[in-house]
Amino acid sequence: MAERMLKFTTVARSTPEKRDAQARDRDFHEIYADFIDAKAAEQSSRCSQCGVPFCQTHCPLHNNIPDWLRLTAAGRLEEAYQLSQATNSMPEICGRICPQDRLCEGNCVIEQSGHGTVTIGSVEKYLTDKAWEEGWVQPLTPGADRGQSVGIIGAGPAGLSAAELLREQGYSVTVYDRHDRPGGLLIYGIPGFKLEKDVVQRRTRRLEDGGVEFRLNFEVGRDASLDDLRGKHDAILLATGVYQARDLTVPGAGSQGVVQGLDYLIASNRKGLGDAVEAFDSGVLDADGKDVVVIGGGDTAMDCVRTAVRQGATSVTCLYRRDRANMPGSMREVAHAEEEGVVFDWLAAPRAVLGEAEAADGVRAHRMRLGPPDSSGRSSPEPMEDSDYDLPARLVITALGFEPEDLPTLFGAPHLKVGRAGTVQLADRRAKRTSLPGVYAAGDIVRGASLVVWAIRDGRDAAAAIHADLLARVSPALVAAE
Question: From the Swiss-Prot or TrEMBL record, what is one GO molecular function term (predicted)?
């Protein structure tokens, strides 16, 4: 099979065809076409099959990327899919939304040598979409009933990944979530042009068909306390994510027309799913016909600016206090947004929201310069004197990051230990155990706002830890046997 590989010197890097900006900026369909079989094989053949696969080591899931690229190049697609999904509960989702430019592809050896990275994410998406089409994705088959149950709080990627593995081990699994659909930010936070919702829904249907129970519109602290759920289940996994948006603290921030980025995205996604959304229908969370300013430079900000374009905004400006090189969002997303007409105002920060309390009509901003590095290692922004200027804005969207909610108070669990930032403290990080016996935690609620791929990794690790502990509770001798 070696003759089919190492073609990076003769075959140029090629991504799936991207829809023209003018053709895509009014709908929420994904912007990339699918690879055809021949193209996927050709691009996979560019892999150098290096002895130390940096793509694999820089993937949080340590996916066996070189081997499934080799199988794809050989046309052994079902085997390639089986290998790709062996370490990843949602490969087609990671293929769509992972920042490959910062992870696997950004560390590809041939990228470092100037030949252009292998299109790992596109091949991963292609393989799993092909698997769904061909029926290679098998139903979730529960293991022999163990007579033990696990409750999972949160139906996002960490919770869903854990639910799948625990159900396969024979546990009764119930997933509790505050929303009316499972998926967490995959269904309500990420726009359809990055991740169409049927892709998420077929994953959650597979879990439901396999016996995972979903208790939706369920709020811990309102419908049951954490202790109530601990009494019902043999183990509890906290996989709530972090949803508390950081506030904008400038004069006028409370004016009508200043909205949180997540509220804005949830409303847009709900409309796309066919829901009635009063705040959208009234115009509060609709950018149509408005000058829009989005404040922030992360992935949520990128989702907001590109959503505003599709809703028909008159203008969309992204205000970010650092420069392009120091922004946390994906450079690919920035490029997509610029193609779609978004203006990036670098080294700029808000001083005030203009207008009246009932209606914002602009943002007063000032220029920044970069000073010494801060605790994150990035240059710290400092305001420049006498640099104020005004931007028109009838809709101001804040995307300043997320913090954990106060789970001990919210869940009626005062003995649940959290750190200064509010994230859940683990008594044993490897085993995902919290300060409460039988309660585990995984994903953003432990590590802070992070990537979906890390949430999947944490959920899988938590499932393995829960299984080991529950097995030991029944019979320590079985732990060694399994």
Answer: glutamate synthase (NADPH) activity
Q: What's domain 149-242+404-481's architecture?
A: 3-Layer(bba) Sandwich (3.50)
pLDDT in tens, 134-180: 999 999 999 999 999 999 999 999 999 999 999 999 999 999 999 99
Report the topology of domain 2-134: Fumarate Reductase Iron-sulfur Protein; Chain B, domain 2 (1.10.1060)
Answer for the pair 4, 46: CB distance below 8 angstroms, yes or no: no
Residue spans per domain, the chain: 2-134, 149-242+404-481, 248-400
DSSP output for 304-328:
HHHHHHHTT-SEEEEE-SS-GGG-S
CATH class of 248-400: alpha beta
* 3-class SS shares of the chain: helix, strand, coil, % to 5: 35, 20, 45
> What's the longest Cα–Cα distance across the chain?
72
pTM of the entire predicted model = 0.94
Helix or strand run (H / E) with residue 8: none
Region class of 125: left (phi > 0), else alpha (psi between -120 and 50), else beta: alpha
Separation CA 427–CA 446 (nearest Å): 11
3-class secondary structure, 203: helix
- 412-446 pLDDT, tens digit each: 999 999 999 999 999 999 999 999 999 999 999 99
Domains 149-242+404-481 and 248-400 share a fold: yes
Q: Is 211 helix (H, G, I), strand (E, B) or coil?
A: coil
